[in-house]
Amino acid sequence: MEISDRTGASIVQANSSSTMRDVAAYAGLSPMTVSRTLRGDPAVSAENRQKVLEAVSVLGYRRNEAARSLRSGRSHGIVGLVVTNLANPFYSQLALGVEQFAAQHGQQVLIGNTAENLDRERELLEDFASRRIDGAVVVPASDDHRHLRATQAQGMPVVLAGAPPRRSSLDSVLVDDFGGAHELTNQLIDAGHRHIAFLGLPTHLWTGAERLRGFTTAMAAAGLDTPGAMVDHHIPDIATAQQVTGELLDRKNPPTAIVGGNNRNTMGAYRAIRQRAADTALVGFDDFEFADLLDRSLTVAAYDPTELGSSAASLLHDRVHMTAPRRARTISIPVQLKHY
Amino acid sequence: MEISDRTGASIVQANSSSTMRDVAAYAGLSPMTVSRTLRGDPAVSAENRQKVLEAVSVLGYRRNEAARSLRSGRSHGIVGLVVTNLANPFYSQLALGVEQFAAQHGQQVLIGNTAENLDRERELLEDFASRRIDGAVVVPASDDHRHLRATQAQGMPVVLAGAPPRRSSLDSVLVDDFGGAHELTNQLIDAGHRHIAFLGLPTHLWTGAERLRGFTTAMAAAGLDTPGAMVDHHIPDIATAQQVTGELLDRKNPPTAIVGGNNRNTMGAYRAIRQRAADTALVGFDDFEFADLLDRSLTVAAYDPTELGSSAASLLHDRVHMTAPRRARTISIPVQLKHY
DNA sequence: CTGTTAGCGCCTTCAA
DNA sequence: TTGAAGGCGCTAACAG
Known about the structure:
6-stranded mixed beta sheet, 45% helix, 6-stranded parallel beta sheet, 3 domains, alpha/beta, 12 strands, homodimer, elongated
């Protein structure tokens, strides 16, 4: 009686809100046989399997993942991704890497943007945890990782992307920021430059600190000075980079070469150099589209953000499926110079 | 007895796998009071509310969303987003728009990338539906929308972004591709150009067809010809656009101006023009970063992809929360010319 | 204001 | 190979 009500008697309409009971009733079998068939359990006769599949097809039935994961305890294939700025091509490529890995493993990606706001980051992780997702890849908004550590301790693994763990032992994927900046600087030194300026990033973030260290280390190794007047690391945007470079170039003793700490700073420097028709040499961290269209040569330290994402997803996958406790791992993404 | 087992007696350890029963036991109350407190139901005494909140805090308890949505039938704030290429800044900005709207409404975003593969698009929608999410914003990979219509018919609303519905009545957000191309072309005509080439997109996609129509309509209105030799719409990438433009410019009677159908085509055209040091005028659809750094003036038809995303999310939100059936709606995103 | 009962859709366990 | 019973964590509906 009830069953015929639920299936709507002969009214066969595709509807995603039908249940296994409906499918079972339509096929004249028990819900368990439907469940087994849909899980690919071999302990179902070919005949019944056929009946089930047809009923599923006719009714447009889709198994309810919420109920599934509730009963089985496990999450069913959702990984979280928290980035600081999705509109930045760097992070969207990283997101693509995570998505590609996830897709290959039958997982979906739940994405959140923090706009570098730590509270929002905490909020997102809280929410992710309440959805019992498998784990999350996080590009941290700050070097405060306490909530990330806590989240992992409560059973939801966290992998850091682009920053090393602080006071915690989380898996992480890092870029060789030091090596890249070191190589960029060495190229200028090898070309004979002695008076080199550096347009850096805020050094309270690991990336900024490492790139600065790469620069100063290379300079020191060549016996060159890095006076404070030639190093800046409070540059928020392209316009500021342009202005700072302008001031450098307008000095009595301007630098003959400039290292951009990221592509925004490099672009700002390029504008200032071009504006003055100076022949200052320019190199910079991060590749960018159309770098080859500029009207002078440029060397950039490039790496693949998509690889960063897929590596992070891979570490996360390993940790989610590990059987025994495992120590934190770190993967380093190589950086190579590209000459335009 | 069982309860004291579950709470681990006096062993109070933060653990996201604790349940309302555990919280209730710790607070000496019933699970219902915990549930009511956590939902913000006013029918809880201040005293008990306090007890509950403290127990939650001590136990590190987090409500299980899967169980919640299973019981209440409704999904709890997940919207899907399907794009064709997340690495394209255009779509990542669109994604940001969706994310921002979702965040303001307490929702999360489940993202999927199709790489313009229709099967993958179908697969993603199947999966989304089985997770009973609220609905999805889709940038369609083709003009086959049957599965999208079916998905909406089965109770999961779909909003199209960047393409109008085909043989279906879905909500959609469109860009004024016709108007933008029309204006771009008119600017060249007003500047005295009579021999204008168009580097278009595949016309089986709505955007490609509309931009071509904008071009030909403007030309026709000025009494100008648009011979097939001056119109191309099989250009897959920048290199091809460069080659095609090169062939145009090397003719006996080359165009004096070119309209790029998107930023890739515009960039390819720019390279060919620059290579030949030609003074061909250039305009194009889509803004792009560093367009101002090119060594000649350029006009682009620009619009805000983030707005496209947030508008789509808004339409979806309305449809998810509508009470009575509502006709399909379309929002048009304005396009404006920017001169570099 | 608080608690009891029942069941969302599925899957684990056990019995046939 | 199949089915019946029971419960995952939560909350609607109904008592008190």
